[in-house]
Amino acid sequence: MARGQLIERIPRLRGSGRHHIQYRHIIDSLVRKPGAFANYRYQSDLFPRVLFRVAYDWLREHDPAGADRQYVKILYLAAFESEQRVDEALRLRIQQGEPITVDRVSEQVKSPAGFDCREIEIEPLQIAVYDSLLEETEQVCA
Hints:
This protein is mainly α. It has helices spanning about 25-30, 50-60, 65-80, 85-95, 100-110, 125-140. The chain contains 6 helices and no strands. The model has no long low-confidence stretch (mean pLDDT about 85).
């Protein structure tokens, strides 16, 4: 790490009763005691993106006994592999109506072929449009 390099930005919270918990800071403890997740006071801070919450709700509906353990392992995967890839894996599983398990999400995250590349079509730039803007500016300034 180079001196002066930004490592993390944490929001400044003013007033009482406000909190900000980084799941990466406590995930090791939660993996050792996944049952603690269900009653964790700041549980809402442990959903880094919307699809993580959707996945947890799905797990609670389809596997009430193992939901906390599965979710904490998915969160662990996000902390040590890639939060973005886990989010994408969850999105694909939800869209396709497939079961959400840590094993399936892990397979997809670790597989280089596990994601569909989205094609983005970019139309060629029309330089003439900018030329016409310059001509209009020259006429106004003259």
